[in-house]
Amino acid sequence: MSCAQPQLRRAACSACAVPVSPLFVPTAIWDATRALMLLAVLAAAVGFAVGLSAAGGAAWRARARVAGMAMLLAGALALLGLAVCTAGARGTAWHFSWSYILGWVGVVLIGSAGLFHLCAAAKDLSPESSETGGG
After folding, report:
1. Cβ–Cβ < 8 Å for 19, 9
2. Domain-by-domain residue ranges, the chain?
3. What pTM value is reported for the model?
4. What is the residue-wise DSSP string for the chain?
5. 79-129 confidence digits (pLDDT tens)
6. How far, in Å, are 10, 47, 51, 62 from residue 59 at the CA level?
């Protein structure tokens, strides 16, 4: 195996210890992106479950607030994961596809869902409130 041959894996000799592929992104960046995205999905699932449980019961405001914070955390983790992915692919011949755009749309949607939950938890539902429209 010659060091002058382009290849996707690391060469055996020390002079060619760096990969020569223009599409190479270090595995630590992919691992960090994967971990952040998995944590974002987990936080979104927790927020969704707590948000559904907030529909009834006495402590609905506390549950809605927790759901909103979990969804905002999911949005922040997904945003961080997409930023790490973007920074890792800079300077390479990598191109972004529909899944990357879908990730950014998901960040906006989960972030807005978290804000809506927080706003719903802060809303006053007492009969004397002018927000109810009762009179």
Report:
1. yes
2. 25-122
3. 0.71
4. --TTS--SSPPSSGGG-S---TT---HHHHHHHHHHHHHHHHHHHHHHHHHHHTTSSTTHHHHHHHHHHHHHHHHHHHHHHHHHHHHHTTTSS----HHHHHHHHHHHHHHHHHHHHHHHHH----TT-TTS---
5. 999 998 888 777 776 777 888 889 999 999 999 999 999 998 887 666 665
6. 57, 16, 12, 6
